[in-house]
């Protein structure tokens, strides 16, 4: 198992897509779809203007966990792959280190409805479980973000958590949240 994404042979190709590590040069292309009304509604950070977005995009911590989805050389979305540590008791914390990842995704709305997000996230599972040797992946969303949780369920993730008004949205409303997970052995049984 490795926490180093450089251990993966990038770019990774699927039937229709290419997935690669993000670079600073991807700020403009990702801002173009992340700022679209409706897309930005569910994102953790408002996109703002291009200059402030680009400054946050190139933060080394963010860049290290961002992947780019391309179709025929065009950036159509991005993925988050944040490897981390699950909760564990103190005596075994070293055995748990780096065994879990949180995933996230954003797709340009012009490319929605063609199965690209499903294809990209399915490949992200393969990367997590085969290339990186992780044991578990999780994904979180607002309960009202139907497209996101439907994607999780379509890919076999299990809803493990429904939190009630625990997430403060930038609208000022406290919203429900969902937490999903998939274990490596569950993924292998489906694959």
Summarize the structure.
By secondary structure, this protein is of the alpha+beta class. The chain has helices at 27-34, 50-57, 60-64, 93-96, 116-131, 146-154, 184-190, and strands at 12-13, 18-21, 66-71, 74-84, 100-107, 136-142, 158-168, 174-183.
Structural notes for this entry:
By secondary structure, the protein is α+β, with helices and mostly antiparallel strands. The protein has a single domain, classed as 3-Layer(aba) Sandwich (Aminopeptidase), CATH 3.40.630.30. 30% of the residues lie in helices and 31% in strands. The protein has seven helices and eight strands, in the order E-E-H-H-H-E-E-H-E-H-E-H-E-E-H. It has an eight-stranded mixed beta sheet, sandwiched between helices. The two termini are 20 Å apart.
Gyration radius (Cα, Å) is 16 Å
User: What is the 3D shape?
Assistant: globular
Order the strands across the largest sheet as they lie in space: 1-2-3-4-5-6-8-7
How many strands?
Answer: 8
**Biggest beta sheet attributes:** 8 strands, mixed
When the domains are counted, the total is 1
Beta-strand residue fraction: 25-35%
Q: Which architecture would the CATH scheme give at its second level? A: 3-Layer(aba) Sandwich
Helix content: 25-40%
- In whole angstroms, how far apart are the ends? 20 Å
Tell me the structural class.
alpha+beta
Which sequence of SSEs, written as H and E, runs from N to C?
Answer: EEHHHEEHEHEHEEH
Q: Tally the helices: what do you get? A: 7
**Fourth-level CATH superfamily:** Gcn5-related N-acetyltransferase (GNAT)
Average pLDDT rating: 94
Low-confidence stretches: none
Reported by name, the CATH topology is Aminopeptidase
The CATH class: Alpha Beta
Pfam family, one: Acetyltransf_3
Protein name: GNAT family protein
Organism: Nocardioides caricicola
Domain N-acetyltransferase: 17-185
